[in-house]
Amino acid sequence: MIARTADITGPQNIGIGTDLCQDQPDSIVEWMRVGRWTKGMDYGEGSAEVPGFPAPVTWHRDNRDLAGFAEGLRKAGLSQPEIDGVMGGNWARFYAESFGPLDARTPIQRAAE
Predict the structure, then answer these.
(1) Which backbone phi and psi does 2 adopt, to 5 degrees?
(2) Cα dist. 57→27, 32, 54, 100 in Å?
(3) Are 97 and 105 in contact (CB under 8 A)?
(4) How far apart are CA 6 and CA 30, in angstroms?
(5) Rounded distance, CA 27 to CA 102, Å?
(6) Which residue from 80, 109, 86 is spatially nearest to 97, judged by alpha carbons?
(7) Segments making up each domain of the chain, as ranges
(8) Cβ-proximal residues to 89 (8 Å cutoff; 6+ apart), any chain
(9) What does R_g of the chain's alpha carbons equal in angstroms?
(10) 87: nearest Cα among 15, 21, 19
(11) DSSP string spanning the chain?
């Protein structure tokens, strides 16, 4: 799925985020999905009948298995710099470009203000 997304959008535009909900109850997941800013319920991968997370896949038990993603991307043909980006570098770049000091923003970001 990650490699296919990289094919569609370019590997520089995707990354593993910070929303791993490992061992969290459904109430935390609901707060993350809906928050206080909306009145509509977002069931994410679930539904009104089954609102929680789906069962985890057997090959990804928890955050200790994230290294397997990198190996899968390598086998799918991504280069090491592309893998490094997907595994955290792209997220760090996005964060720095989006939330950094005003003078570090791109001209497009400054024009949007």
Answers:
(1) -65, -45
(2) 21, 21, 9, 36
(3) yes
(4) 28
(5) 36
(6) 109
(7) 2-112
(8) 15
(9) 17
(10) 15
(11) -HHHHHHHH-GGG----S---TT--HHHHHHHHHTTS-SS---TTS-SSS-SPPPPPTT--SGGGTHHHHHHHHHTT--HHHHHIIIIIHHHHHHHHHHS-GGGS-HHHHHH-
**What does the block give as tokens for 70?**
């990198």
Sign, CA torsion 69/77/7/95: positive
Tokens encoding 64: 């200790």
Residue 58: both structure tokens together? 């057997």
pLDDT tens for the chain, 113 residues: list them: 888 999 999 999 999 866 667 777 777 777 776 766 666 676 666 677 776 666 777 877 788 888 888 999 999 999 999 999 999 999 999 888 888 666 667 777 777 77
Query: For position 82, what pLDDT does the model report?
Result: 97
